[in-house]
Input
Amino acid sequence: MADLVDNKPGAEEEEEFHEVPESEKTPVTIITGFLGSGKTTLVNYILKEQNTWKICVVENEFGEVSIDNDLVRENLAAKEDIIMLDNGCVCCSVRGDLVRTFAMLASRRKEFDAIIIETTGLADPSPIIFTFNSNALIQDNYRIDSVVCLVDAKHINIHLDEVRPEGNINEAEHQIAFADRIVLNKLDLVSAEELEDVEDRIKSMNAFATLIKTERSRAPLEKILSLNSFSLDRVVEL
Output
């Protein structure tokens, strides 16, 4: 008679297939927005002026505007990819692909309350979202907390109305459509009527996102961070 074989996985196999709970993964906020919308001003505020949150900002070095000049000089002097600030925040320059950058940060991720990715003004957020939901290393350590789109209330209509060659996407439309938080910035530059028109247009493109109105990008961080408001199902449906 053949010996009975126990096919139950051993302890090592169970650990190998253990799924990290979402609550233990580091929340990542993706910040998008067209050229001049105020993304860099928001990042500088997060890095230099607030002391409540310990944030790691992943800054695309090919962005249209550099972060604070003092930080840039410090980065060039140190020849390092990561800059530690006095308030506990960190600025990280993307020199490789996104996966490699987040692999580098994995051992330190629990030091931060949140990680922020600032995309370039022309970036379509969908490839970043796809990467977060298709790469095992990233899925095991991080989760998309929210997608925040900064909108320049004065000039957004120009970007939305820009005629593109057939088959080319309008990045400004994608940025608004994929967001679950929209920071409507530069309110001091528009009239009440102009603001109402912009709000109506945004809501017609994305009725689900929460609108946060600001001047000079000074958005309360509790309204854009650690909200767990991102829904992959809604993105897939979109």
